[in-house]
Amino acid sequence: MGKTKIRFFTAGIFFFFLNLSVHAQNKNEIVSSLDKKYPELESFYKYMHSHPELSLQEKETSATIAKRLRKSGYSVSENIGGYGVVGIMKNGEGPVVALRADMDALPVTEKTGLPYASKLIGKDKNGNDTGIMHACGHDIHCTVMLGSAGVLAENKDLWHGTLVMIAQPGEEGCLGAKAMIKDGLFTRFPRPNYILGLHVSPLFPSGSIAFKEGEAMAGSLSVFITVRGIGGHAAMPNLTKDPVVLSAEIIMALQTILSRELAPGIPSVVTVSSIHGGTAFNIIPDKVELSLSVRYPSPEVRDKILSAIKRICEGSAVAAGLPDALMPLVSYQMEKEYIPLYNNIELSRKAGTVFEKTFGKDKVFPAPFMTWAEDFAFYSHENPPIPTFFYFIGANDPLFLESIKGKAITELDPVSAAGRLTLHSPYFAPSPENTIKTGVAAMCAAVLELMKKK
């Protein structure tokens, strides 16, 4: 990020806080705190990026975050729902506002070539060796949370109430949020009036914000299909019932669920992402395993898709002449479902107005409904409900995004370009400084709007 852009960014934040409260003293302290803290935040980010830990293995990451929260003056509790961390700062009477960041990394071997790239090897859920990488930006999320925690702690004259910092494990496995809630997140600690969360997005330029009111992100469920058949010699397929051919027919038929069974415009996905079958070139196997990722905006759409998957599998098997005893097996684990994420409309509009004042309307974008999934959604499903707001901070180089406008994905180099447009890619590399500064400024702006002194 160039010096001119940094000065513009800082000036914009300054003038926002200058108008934040007529009673606030030393209003430029927010900007000063952020600039002063940035070198330390960048150092933490690079350390966390190069020392990733897989879901539910975040022992060192959580300990480091707990230590830094204590240093900023928070009362800290560890090992909440696993390696979860909760930091509390009370500052008189007022609302309770929680900020949440996820800590876990992915079983991905990093290929960014960055000097602080991860070189760690770990064990995946099946016990196999795997590279480990923060390919979903959770290192940025934690850095933004710590930066916000520190800036707000240094400027207590600008807000009142109770801050709750939530460092959550296990987002990628859809277990972390539920585990922390079950372990008393909202009963052992102050119950929030609002919960804020964010995610980096390579689809938007660094220095920008994007969000959607109401239904914002999809629910997600993994579906597993065992296509059964009668194996035999590849030279005599007439004496077999080939599950490979049947799997191919099922895969193609599944594509019609969205195009022919759901109404146009319903944002849903049925992706067959894994196919395993056979052991040798001359053997027709007796089964093929398929893994699917299903995404949907509501439980009603989910149920319709699941029903169609089962009907297509069984109908294809009947057409292939298989007996009832060899019908395909369709299974899924509802306890590992990501539920759709809903942004409280009133809270979204309040935060959106603040973001536009902070960054300018040209830096705040309407986000489309995202078919990514997030277990942040579980925080709003309490009784009584807690208003939640989840937004995106741009993480990509603005010049890069401008250079590829109008180009098809097939026109881009798969390493230097296409891999920079998606999360979970071994080439995912956010622009740290502008992304982190924007994230901290946005979070502080939202918090101060909710907790400002009258």
List the helices and strands and how they pair.
Blueprint: H1 3-18, H2 29-50, H3 59-71, E1 75-80, E2 84-91, E3 96-102, E4 121-123, E5 129-131, H4 138-154, E6 161-168, H5 176-182, E7 194-205, E8 209-211, E9 214-217, E10 219-228, E11 232-233, H6 243-254, H7 256-261, E12 269-277, E13 283-284, E14 287-296, H8 299-319, E15 329-332, E16 341-343, H9 345-359, E17 364-366, E18 388-396, H10 398-403, H11 432-451
Parallel strand pairs: 3-6, 3-7, 7-18, 8-17
Antiparallel strand pairs: 1-2, 2-6, 4-5, 8-18, 9-16, 10-14, 10-15, 11-13, 12-14
Helix pairs in contact: 1-11, 2-4, 2-11, 4-11, 6-8, 9-11
Q: Helical region count?
A: 11
Q: Spell out the CATH superfamily of the largest domain.
A: Zn peptidases
Poorly predicted ranges: 1-27
Q: What is the makeup of the main sheet? A: 8 strands, mixed
Instruction: Give the beta-strand count.
Output: 18
Indicate the percent of residues in helices: 25-40%
Sum up the overall morphology in one term. elongated
Q: What name is given to the CATH topology of the largest domain? A: Aminopeptidase
Oligomer: single chain
Give the ordered list of helices and strands. HHHEEEEEHEHEEEEEHHEEEHEEHEEHH
Give the CA-CA distance, first to last residue.
36 Å
Overall tally of structural domains: 2
On the 0-100 scale, what is the average pLDDT?
92
- Strand arrangement, largest sheet? 1-2-6-3-7-18-8-17
For the record, the CATH architecture of the largest domain stands as 3-Layer(aba) Sandwich
Strand % is 15-25%
Rg, Cα atoms, Å = 24 Å
CATH class group of the largest domain: Alpha Beta
Q: Which structural class should the secondary elements be placed in?
A: alpha+beta
